[in-house]
Design brief:
It is a single chain. With about 350 residues, the chain is mainly α. Helix content is about 65%, strand content about 0%. The protein has a two-stranded antiparallel sheet with strand order 1-2. Strands 3-4 form a two-stranded antiparallel sheet. Strand 3 and strand 4 form a beta hairpin. Helix 3 crosses helix 5 and helix 5 packs across helix 7.
């Protein structure tokens, strides 16, 4: 990373390397998946609809999570299609489901579903995190500094001919030749961060979450060390704390309290200063919400929907996965599985 890129990109260097590795794997996976192909576009549409329907049916109960995990695993392992195609569709559909806000209990339940499924199909987790990085740079965490772009050399300006180009670079969408509003973008940013935060704090007894609290703690530290305080990072932090604060405090205790002091003494101060310079109504609301979480010790209370209805997820909750006999013998399916799991 050269000095000019370093000035523009606000992120921990290690995290940028991880992001690039994940995105490269995702690109390779996508290319090989396309090469496998489906017999027709209608087949692909039907497959997408089947996955989307199961994902929409996820709710915050033990029985529902168990049922949906079984259904989705069977679909992923269905030898009718190569497993990589099924995994790619699953990842795409569960991330796109969070383009709009979902109830917290559904989001937490989806975290459990993802952890269970990736315990059976490990490479799916890296693909899912890569997809989240692709649609929301703050899950890295990363920020692109527009003010620094204006001061860079001409060789970098080709990528940013206008402020609209910058908006598209950080994830704004363009429809009918017009860039969406900041309000619409921030709503979607919050939805993606909600899924990411729910995922990192998901703990299931007897199952290792490969992108769990350790990664969530690292995300928070890198976020505060590398990213500036503005409306985008403010929304990302607010949602992350809303969803993950309780689990992070349970694990890190005094260290988490120190992090919150850092947020109060530094990030919030800078965010309030931004509010005095920029006319962005959302800034005041976000600042107030984060300050409220900290001052009222909201991290001591489990978030609404955090606990699956009935009891916490436990070893007895582990879905009993029923596979057809063909899954236990060498087949095209198993060869695809071996081929793609080698990437991860």
């Amino acid at each position: 990373m050269d000095n000019h890129q370093g000035n523009i990109l606000k992120a921990a260097e290690n995290e940028l390397k991880l992001e690039q590795e994940r995105l490269q794997k995702y690109k390779e996976f996508e290319e090989k998946t396309k090469a496998l192909g489906l017999s027709s576009y209608k087949d692909f549409q039907r497959l997408e609809q089947q996955f989307a329907r199961r994902i929409r049916q996820i709710s915050g109960t033990k029985e529902n999570v168990r049922t949906k995990v079984n259904e989705l695993i069977k679909m992923i392992n269905d030898p009718l299609y190569p497993q990589p195609i099924n995994v790619a569709v699953f990842v795409s559909k569960i991330v796109s489901y969070f383009e709009v806000d979902q109830p917290s209990k559904v989001t937490f339940a989806c975290g459990h579903v993802i952890v269970f499924i990736t315990s059976q199909v490990p490479y799916a987790m890296d693909l899912l995190i890569a997809e989240l990085h692709r649609v929301c740079i703050y899950t890295v965490p990363k920020h692109i500094d527009y003010s620094k772009i204006l001061k860079t050399f001409l060789r970098l300006q080709s990528a940013f001919k206008s402020k609209e180009d910058y908006y598209k670079m950080i994830g704004y969408r363009e429809e009918n030749g017009k860039i969406e509003s900041t309000e619409a973008y921030l709503k979607r940013l919050a939805c993606y961060m909600k899924l990411y935060a729910a995922l990192v704090q998901t703990e299931a007894e007897g199952i290792q979450n490969p992108h769990g609290l350790k990664e969530g703690w690292a995300w928070l530290a890198r976020f505060l060390n590398a990213l500036p305080a503005n409306v985008y990072t403010g929304v990302a932090l607010e949602v992350f704390l809303q969803m993950a604060r309780f689990a992070l405090f349970r694990k890190y205790r005094s260290q988490f309290r120190k992090i919150l002091k850092n947020i109060s003494g530094n990030f919030l101060v800078a965010l309030k200063a931004q509010g005095g310079k920029v006319k962005e109504p959302k800034l005041k609301q976000v600042t107030g919400n984060i300050q409220y979480y900290i001052e009222k010790n909201e991290f001591l209370q489990e978030p609404e929907g955090w606990k699956l209805q009935g009891s916490l997820l436990s070893g007895s909750m582990m879905p009993q996965l029923d596979y057809p006999d063909s899954y236990h013998h060498p087949s095209n399916h198993s060869r695809y599985c071996q081929q793609y799991s080698s990437y991860y």
